[in-house]
Amino acid sequence: MRITPTTELEYRCKKLQEYMAAAGLDAVVIVQNADLFYFTGTVQNGNLYIPALGQPIFMVRKDAARARMESGLKEVIPFGSMKDIPGILSQYGYPEPERIGLELDVLPVNFFYRYQKVYPNAAYSDATPLIRKVRMIKSHYEIHLMKDAADQLDAVYRRACEVIRVGMTDIELAAELEYTARKSGHQGMVRMRGFNSETFFGHVFSGSDGSVPSYSDTPLGGLGVNTSFGQGAGLKRIERNEAILVDLAGCVDGYLIDQTRILAIGGLSDRLRRAYDDM
Asked: What pLDDT does residue 189 have?
């Protein structure tokens, strides 16, 4: 298992502190899994408190021992409830924050209310733009992981060319490709920008199923295997001379590469080729 280097975590936290100072924030609290992993190196359940000055404190509900093992941050401590936070911060010499930044684009309202009870006199603002500003610039370490994810996805598409056959269903093809991805180290789920929102590998469609819309906040929908989920690969059987759309995300240590490829058994009609070229 690869652990995010301490130097990476320290740099990310310090960069956020620079933006916090410019925005006049005394503290930022991070709880959303993707952001939590970025700044702590783990997704153990807890609150990451980043002061404008000083060491970040990762207060962990479950599991603190594992968080200490996985995170390179210096201060990783257990805590039981939100009401413990002021006492913990006081022990570290941190004053009561007057302006607190939260991930307001994804944070559940109840969590926000709980923080308001802990610090009723504080002003709250959205820290998401600052967090995303830090995250958008990738380090050499991150780029290396993204290249690994691209290699993983390359193996998946090579496998697709080997296994696609007339008569197999879209879901059978999806299962073959997901199996290949898992054997190559794919974590099985990918994160989206929603509160602890995660999705599966991606979409695989053939023929007309590729044009079926769905509720999903994605460019593609699909019928899925039943109406309780209503997206993704379904039970349609693959035919000759039709477009087979494979849109999957490679994922290594939380870092993604998203690629879409159009395949076909035989070939595509001139009309479909023109449509593809026009895209």
From this structure: 87
